[in-house]
Amino acid sequence: MKIRKIAELLDAQVVCGVDLIENEVRYAFASDLMSDVLTLESEHLVLITGLTNMQTVRTAEMADINCIVFVRGKKVTPEMIDVASENNTVLIECKYSMFRTIGMLHDAGVCPVY
């Protein structure tokens, strides 16, 4: 699924990486524990989280994750946008809960990592 479609499906706002929204995502992983994210070995992955801080963007960078959806109406900071821009990472703000977001993406065909 294209990142553009994910943003549309979730009625979400792409706040960084608009030029990358035609990239494909096949898998999703949801966590607020960045140590769990570092254990992943999957390409074309979207990270779904409510943790809005620099650690999230840096963890995604280390794990080669190029798309992060922030749930529960959380807002990213300008510093997060700067780092994400440098690393070609798409940042999306979503108003839905993590549970609802995961369900919507699963119903639309995005696969879980496990």
Description:
With 114 residues, the protein is α/β, with parallel strands linked by helices. The protein has helices at 3-9, 34-37, 54-62, 78-86, 98-107, and strands at residues 13-16, 27-30, 45-49, 67-70, 90-93, 111-112. Strands 1-5-4-3-2-6 form a six-stranded mixed β-sheet, sandwiched between helices. β4 (67-70), α4 and β5 form a beta-alpha-beta unit. α3 runs parallel beside α4. The mean pLDDT is 96. Homohexamer.
Distance between the first and last residues' Cα: 18 Å
Shape: globular
The ordered string of helix (H) and strand (E) elements is HEEHEHEHEHE
The Rg value, from CA coordinates, equals 12 Å
Give the oligomeric state of the chains in this entry, treating copies of one chain as homo and distinct chains as hetero.
single chain
Please count the helical segments: 5
| Helix percentage | 25-40%
Average predicted local confidence, pLDDT: 96
Outline the low-pLDDT stretches. Answer: none
List keywords for this structure.
20% strand, DRTGG, 34% helix, 114 residues, alpha/beta, globular, 5 helices, DRTGG domain-containing protein
